[in-house]
Design brief:
about 210 residues, alpha+beta, Arc Repressor Mutant, subunit A, Beta-Lactamase, 6-stranded antiparallel β-sheet, 8 strands, elongated, DNA-binding transcription factor activity, DNA binding, WH-like_DNA-bd_sf, transcription regulation, DNA-binding
Length: about 210
Amino acid sequence: MTAETSQTLDRGLRVLKLLADTDHGLTVTELSNKLGVNRTVVYRLLATLEQHSLVRRDIGGRARVGLGVLQLGRQVHPLVREAALPALRSLAEDVGATAHLTLVDGTEALAVAVVEPTWTDYHVAYRAGFRHPLDRGAAGRAILAARAGRPDDPGYALTHGELEAGASGAAAPLIGVTGIEGSVGVVMLCDSVPERVGPRVVDAAREVSDALS
């Protein structure tokens, strides 16, 4: 810790990160051991975080992430969307298809930014806020492939007709962005995605990842 940083704030943020990494919560003793501080310090940290609804404790005393984190998370989407828009615009214009940034939201894929091409006669209407299961559609499949760390994948996922009849999709996962699981992709009306689109989507995903890193 340097003179310019707050030790208490650092510990509080570490508590949130530890709780976010577990599904079953942590006890005061477990947090004390992981943080390397005494139980009194942990009690104070949890009490403060509870006041802001960032942490909750169940009947058994295990601490978990609170619903207040969701309120903070809602403010993240506009920032992510703004950072991704330049790459999405370039992708949509280059490929002539609707480009989108999709993030994981629980067990679903959520489109948080969408850019449609300006020069095409027709394209797929795809709206921000659209949700679908992670195991359907190129956007979700790309995320799952990255999560599984499949070495044989070409770096992108291709699908046809899984979310909309007659529409094909290509998507590549965001790589190296801490705390965010997502993908960049395109959706187009065709029987199969042109060969050049997959690598172009990978490039766009890399641009967005760099912007968010």
